[in-house]
């Protein structure tokens, strides 16, 4: 796995240390990787919603039902 050296502000470093000390994560690296994973999943959701909005703006309303859109959004959120 590639190694990186990054710097944190004092409040962010203290927050990371607290999460590790509370045994929520085994290390700051694990926590940072989890945060990045969450951000990537969130970006997938945002991109999907943006594409639906662009489709609606360019070609009229989507043919998906609100239930289908909601179900798809939830499935993307859950990874």
Could you please describe the fold and organization of this structure?
It contains three helices and no strands. By secondary structure, it is mainly α. It has one domain (10-77).
List the helices and strands and how they pair.
Elements: H1 10-21, H2 28-59, H3 66-77
- Give the class from helix and strand content and strand pairing: mainly alpha
Number of strands: 0
Radius of gyration: 18 Å
Average predicted confidence as pLDDT:
89
Q: List low-pLDDT spans.
A: none
| Fraction of residues in H or I helices | over 70%
How much of the sequence is in beta strands? Answer: under 5%
Choose one word for the global shape.
elongated
The helix count comes to 3
Compact overview of the structure:
This protein is mainly alpha-helical. It is built from three helices and no strands.
List keywords for this structure.
79 residues; mainly alpha; 3 helices
């Amino acid at each position: 796995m590639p190694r990186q050296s990054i710097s944190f502000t004092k409040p962010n470093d203290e927050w990371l240390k607290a999460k590790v000390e509370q045994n929520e994560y085994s290390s700051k690296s694990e926590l940072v990787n989890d945060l990045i994973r969450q951000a990537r999943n969130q970006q997938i959701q945002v991109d999907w919603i943006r594409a639906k909005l662009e489709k609606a703006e360019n070609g009229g309303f989507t043919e998906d039902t609100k239930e289908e859109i909601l179900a798809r959004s939830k499935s993307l959120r859950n990874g």
